[in-house]
Amino acid sequence: MRLAPSQAGGKAASGMTNGVGGGNSLVAMCGPHFCSMKITQDVRNYAEQKGLEEAEALKIGMEEKSKQFLEEGAAIYHEV
Predict the structure, then answer these.
(1) What is the pLDDT of residue 49?
(2) What is the pTM of this model?
(3) pLDDT score recorded for residue 32
(4) In tens digits, what is the pLDDT along the chain, a chain of 80 residues?
(5) Is the Cβ–Cβ distance between 12 and 27 less than 8 Å?
(6) Going by C-beta distance under 8 Å and a sequence separation of 6 or more, which residues neighbour residue 2?
(7) Are 1 and 10 in contact (CB under 8 A)?
(8) Integer angstrom CA distances of residue 25 from 20, 38, 64
């Protein structure tokens, strides 16, 4: 199924819950701290703001995030 990000938020996979706080529904490809539809829209917004094509925005964005990851100690897990 392919949805526009604005529509995906309202589509919950039946029986899927986030396991936090009891039963909030999630889109099947998302989790409590990850949403592929939101990431896709964020990339599109980033590309538009920077005046880039999506592929170039992905490349630059990944370079920026790699730098941020290293600056923050390269830890995969963080205390919340």
Answers:
(1) 94
(2) 0.51
(3) 76
(4) 455 555 555 554 444 444 444 454 545 677 777 888 888 899 999 999 999 999 999 999 899 999 999 999 998 887 87
(5) yes
(6) none
(7) no
(8) 10, 16, 32
- Where are the domains positioned within the chain? 11-71
Q: Which residues, including other chains, have CB under 8 Å from residue 60's CB and lie 6 or more apart? A: 50, 52
Task: Tell me which long-range contacts 1-8 makes (C-beta under 8 A, separation of at least 24).
Answer: 3/37, 5/37, 5/38, 5/40, 5/41, 8/37
Structure tokens at 80: 């919340």
CA 33 to chain centre: 8
Residue 25's contacts (CB-CB under 8 Å, 6 or more residues apart) are 12, 13, 16, 17, 18
Run of H or E residues at 16:
none
Q: Which two tokens stand for residue 79?
A: 């205390």
What is the distance between the alpha carbons of residues 62 and 36, in angstroms, rounded to a whole number?
15
